[in-house]
Write a sequence for this structure.
């Protein structure tokens, strides 16, 4: 185990649904990240938070809304998604936003129908 | 454009042989490089990293080589074992990049008994 947990592990939702992904890290890290992993494509960075403040939004559509209430928890709120949003969503954390190793959670496999 | 890419999508090796996985990058401003391993159903797991002021770094059974002249990174795995079967990603972090990693597509390593 990496010390980063994600729930749920699998999620199927319709295009009109609202759901949330949760990530929790037990490592005492200050930075947290959301990545999207689609089949046969590189991992894409979506958001970066450092000390609860968003420091990066990589041109992510507004139907994805992140929330970071504290340094240990990160959420990704989903609303009106499209089938092409189906992917593995990975959360990661690191000590800071310098050259630090990022620890990844197991991911949430999202299917949009 | 800027990219991090891998030469081969799939690499098959015999158990006990050495494996070499290659990665090319094009951003000369990158100063930190990481190799990750991802097994089926899991998130990426850190293997080894290297900073641009080094050209070689060794870990347990793994060695990373960095050639800044030709912008090439490689991961060598000694005495490859069945448990090494996974997808391997290289990632780069630009100088002052805020730990916003750019990942390659990945190489599938298959270990044959």
């Amino acid at each position: 185990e990496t010390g980063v947990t994600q729930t749920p592990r699998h999620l199927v939702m319709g295009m009109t649904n609202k759901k949330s992904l949760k990530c929790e890290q037990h490592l005492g890290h200050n930075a947290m990240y959301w990545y999207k992993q689609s089949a046969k494509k590189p991992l894409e960075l979506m958001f970066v938070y450092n000390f609860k403040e968003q420091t990066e939004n990589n041109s992510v559509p507004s139907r994805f809304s992140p929330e970071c209430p504290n340094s240990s928890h990160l959420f990704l709120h989903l609303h009106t998604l499209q089938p092409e949003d189906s992917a593995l969503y990975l959360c990661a954390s690191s000590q800071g936003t310098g050259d630090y190793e990022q620890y990844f959670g197991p991911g949430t496999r999202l299917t949009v129908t | 454009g800027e990219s991090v890419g891998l030469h081969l999508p799939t690499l098959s090796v015999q158990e006990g042989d050495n494996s070499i996985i290659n990665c090319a990058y094009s951003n000369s401003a990158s100063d930190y490089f990481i190799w990750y391993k991802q097994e089926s159903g899991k998130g990426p797991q850190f293997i080894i990293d290297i900073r641009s002021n080094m050209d070689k770094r060794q870990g347990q059974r793994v060695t990373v080589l960095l050639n800044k002249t030709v912008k090439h990174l490689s991961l060598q795995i000694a005495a490859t074992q069945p448990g090494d079967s996974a997808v391997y990603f290289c990632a780069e972090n630009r100088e002052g990049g805020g730990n916003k990693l750019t990942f390659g597509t990945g190489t599938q390593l298959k270990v044959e008994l």
